[in-house]
Amino acid sequence: MTSRFDTFPPRRGLSVKWDAYDADVLPLWVADMDFPAPEPVTEAMKARAASGQFGYEMDAPALREVIAARMASRYALPTQPDDVLLQPGLVFSLNVVTRTYGAPGSPVLIPTPVYQHFIYAAANFQRPAIEVELPSTLRDGWLYYELDFDALEAAVTPETSVFLLCNPHNPVGRTFTRAELERIAEFCLRHNLLLCSDEIHADLLHPEGAHISIASLGPEIAARTITLVAPSKAFNVPGLQVAAALISNRELREQFIQSSHHLGVHASSVGFPGALAAYTQCEGWLAEVLAYLTGNRNALLAFVRANWPGVQITKPEATYLAYLDFRGVDLPASPYDFFLKQARVALSDGPSYGKGGEGRVRLNYGTSRAVLMEALERMDVALKRAGAAG
Question: 337 and 366 share a domain?
Answer without folding.
Answer: yes
